[in-house]
Amino acid sequence: GFKGATVQWTVTAGSATLTAPFSVSDDTGYAVMAVTPTAITTPGGLAVQAVVGGLQGSPVTFTATAIAGTIQTVTVTPKVDTIANGATLQYTAIAKDAVGNVVNTTFGWTSTAPSIATVTATTGQATALAGDSTRIIATAGGIADTAWLYVRALKTLTLSPADTVITALGDVIQLRYSALDNFGAPITSGLNIRYLTATPNLAEVDPLSGLVTVTGPGKAVILARDAVATSDSLVIGSATLQVNQVVAGVVNTPRGDTLLPVGVLGQSQIVARAFDRNGYTVPNTTFGWTSRDLRFATVSPTGVVTGVALGAAYVVDSVGDLKDSTHVSVVAAPGSALVKMVAPTSFSPASVTIGSGESVTWQNNDDVNHTTTSATSVWDSGTMTPGQTYTVYFPTPGVYLYHCAIHGALFMSGTIIVQ
C-alpha cells in the first residue's frame, strides 16, 4: 500500500455526516473515514466517493444498503375517541426504529374490555357493544401502544311532564323526552324514540310525536324507548297522567219545562247526567235532589219522583253549585198496565201496549228481589223486594226495552210499546 496519501471524501448521494473531509493512508495503505448516515430508506440510497489527488483512474465509491432497525416505538391512531354503541372505528398503527425509520411489520390488536368493544386481531377495527370505556392495544416486536375508546350509550330517558293531573276526558297532552348517555352528557341526535301506552283503555298516544289523548278516567301510563335498542340495553322512560274528571255541568232527562206527568201516588224516574268541560260523562257522580214544592211531589236520593197531590213542582238536582231541573206535573192517574214479576225470573206479560201518557206498574209477586231497569236509562226501580210495586208514566210514544238488573237481560226482560 501507499503510505501518506491524502484521501478526499465526498457524499455523492443520500444524506450522511463525515468525521472530516479527508484522511491519510496508514502504513498498509488504508485510509479510514467514519460515515454516519442520517437517513437510509432504500438500498443504494447512500454513496460516498474517495479521491486521491494525482492518481490516474476512476474514484473509488461505495454504496450503503438500507436495513430496517429493531422496532423501538409503536404509535396508534386515534389515541382517544368516542363512538356510539353499535358503531365501528378503524385504528391504524406505525412502527419505527431508533433513528425514526418506519418498520414494515404486522400488528396484533387487543381490547382490554371486549364486553364493551371488540377489536379485530389483525385489522384493528373496533366494534362498540356497550356503554363504557376500554383500551385498544396494538403490539409489534414486543413493543405496544394504547388508545382509549369511549362507547356512548343511552343511560336515562326522561319524559316531561312526568306527572300530570287531567280534569276532563278528551284533553291532549304533548310529551317530550330528554336523554343522557352513560357519561352524563345530553343526547340530542341519533335516537329513534317511540311512545306507547301501558293503559290503552285510559289514553292513546302517537308513537312518533308523543301526543297523548285522554280517553278514560284513572291513572294512565305512557312509556318511551329507543326503537333500535336491544333487550339487554333497553332504557325506558315513563310519564303518568292522573285523570280526575271535574264536573262542569249537569243535565236531566226530561229537563226544564218539558213536563213529566206523574199520577197521584205514582212514581217516575228522572235521569241526571254530569259531564266534564269537554262534554264527557262523569261516572259515579252523586247528585243532590230537591223538590221545590213538597205539597205536590217528593223526590228520592236517586231521582225517583212520587206524586203527592194534583199540581206541579220543579225537581232540582245539583252537584255543588251546578244545577238542572225537571218540571213535574202531578195528574189524575191515567190508564195503566200491570206487569208482574214471577218465578222463574220472568215478567208477565213480557210485552204490554199502552197509550201515550199512560203508565205501567210493576209488582214483585216473586219471593226474591228484582228490578225493572230501562235499557236506555229512562227509568230504574232499584231493588224491589217481594210485594213492592213501581210505576212509570210514558208521555212519549216509542218502544221501550227493559230488564231485571239482578238476573240480567238474557234471562229476564220485557217490552213496553207506547202508541
Give the helix/strand layout.
Layout: E1 6-13, E2 15-18, E3 22-24, E4 35-39, E5 46-52, E6 60-64, E7 73-77, E8 80-84, E9 88-90, E10 92-96, E11 108-111, E12 117-119, E13 125-128, E14 132-140, E15 143-152, E16 154-160, E17 163-166, E18 172-174, E19 176-181, E20 193-197, E21 203-205, E22 211-214, E23 218-226, E24 236-243, E25 249-253, E26 256-263, E27 267-269, E28 271-275, E29 288-291, E30 297-299, E31 304-307, E32 311-319, E33 322-331, E34 336-342, E35 346-348, E36 351-354, E37 358-364, E38 373-374, E39 389-394, E40 398-403, E41 413-418
Parallel strand pairs: 8-15, 17-24, 26-33, 34-37, 36-41
Antiparallel strand pairs: 1-3, 1-5, 2-4, 5-6, 7-10, 9-13, 11-14, 12-13, 14-15, 16-19, 18-22, 20-23, 21-22, 23-24, 25-28, 27-31, 29-32, 30-31, 32-33, 34-35, 37-39, 38-40, 40-41
Q: CA-to-CA gap between the ends?
A: 150 Å
Oligomer: single chain
Under CATH, the homologous superfamily of the largest domain reads Cadherins
What is the CATH topology descriptor of the largest domain?
Immunoglobulin-like
The helical percent reads under 10%
Provide mean pLDDT, rounded.
89
Radius of gyration: 50 Å
Query: How many DSSP helices?
Result: 0
Q: Which spans have pLDDT < 50 for at least 5 consecutive residues?
A: none
Which architecture of the largest domain would the CATH scheme give at its second level?
Sandwich
Which CATH C-level class of the largest domain is it? Answer: Mainly Beta
Tally of structural domains:
5
The major β-sheet equals: 4 strands, antiparallel
The best one-word shape is: rod-shaped
* Structural class computed from helices and strand pairing: mainly beta
Q: How are the strands of the largest sheet arranged?
A: 3-1-5-6
- In total, the number of strands is 41
Strand content: over 45%
